Amino acid sequence: MNSVAWPVSRTERFLLAALLLVVPLLEVPKHLFWVAWVGVSLTMLWRGRGLGGPAQSGWQPWDALLGAVLVAALLAGAGFADPGSSLAATGDTLRLVSVPWLMARRGYRVADCLPLLWAALAGTVLATVWGFIDIFRATAPMFLELNSVGHVNHSSIYLAIAFGCALGLALADRAQGRGLALAAALLLAAALMATGSRASAGAAVGFVLLLGWSAPFSGTDPARAARRRLRFRVGLLVLVLAAGGVYRLATGLSDKRLQPEGQGLIEKFVFQASVGAPTSHRDGLLRLALAAAGAHPLVGLGNGGFRRLTPERVCAEIIVPPAGQPCDTARYFFSSHAHSLYANTLAERGLVGLAALLALLGAWALRLRRTLDWARADHRQAGIWVASLAGLSVTAFAGLLNTSLHHEHGLLAMATLGMLLAASAPPRGAPA
Question: Which among 98, 101, 333, 370 is least buried, having the fewest CB atoms inside 10 angstroms?
Fold first, then answer.
């Protein structure tokens, strides 16, 4: 996907920035802004055909990868699931793949992408403050949730990715914006701890470790570059410790709990073990996903099929016992999804869907590796690279124990992929 001769318009930039701003805040506007942005972008893409734009640059590997994810969603449950309900659920996948595809095809540059990151960060900070206000106004303990993201597991994934975006902006902005970005990163890290999500907090730690290892700095003086990397790593550690301090301070400022009893980040380990569910029933969910995949291995149950699994349906269609034998479903746990990106994809989209997902994540990781030198060449480019590293690492790591890469947090992650693909694209005619 090469850069485009027809530049990205102000309208496109405004609509995408507005979309990223309202995604965690308001339900209806985010759908309206997405429709408007896609419409304008497709129009501009068509108009650019006559100028040698990317519409004439041919089919590229990333087109195939994103297309494969969409095709896998369309094929999910073919010949088994109700076509109407499964196809209706592909709308989320269409939204997700449209963002990086259009950003790359339209040729967003570094200067176009940084304001988008600021918009995403501003929306997340506002939604986080709103969430804390709701907690302190509530009459009963509740989880911290972002208004238009919803469930605490989803909100925590969104916070973890936005935390990475804040660190990226702190690298990209060497003026007054650096302090704002670091303050936002501190708030979002503390908020992530307040959600009590072990999966998202662990994913954020994984991201920080990868960021500390890569430390996107370079220079002609190796000794100076090494000192900068050391300071950067120490700064990351200080930031994480400070966020922990802010979280502990917040718990002591009021008699209001930041989460229900036993649901704190550390408390949860003891509480879940005390109720006989140290893994929060994820072992039962995994067994159910594998059983469903065994019955429908190629294209799965269909999109949203996991939520329609019941003990009765499992006994009738998934693990049919021999005649006269009882059907034991005690080993399974039933929920709306498998609480794992990989297990849920395997169950609902089969091996086809899982292969497309792993190909996408693998290609994303390879793109990050190949563009590390590009990121080290300029601090603004480093900011975009760090945000995309957060999008991938949080999606991949949190996806082990939660169903990431869908709805709002999926859109934010894919937007960071789109920024990386577009901003780091080689000149036209060079290999992608």
Answer: 370
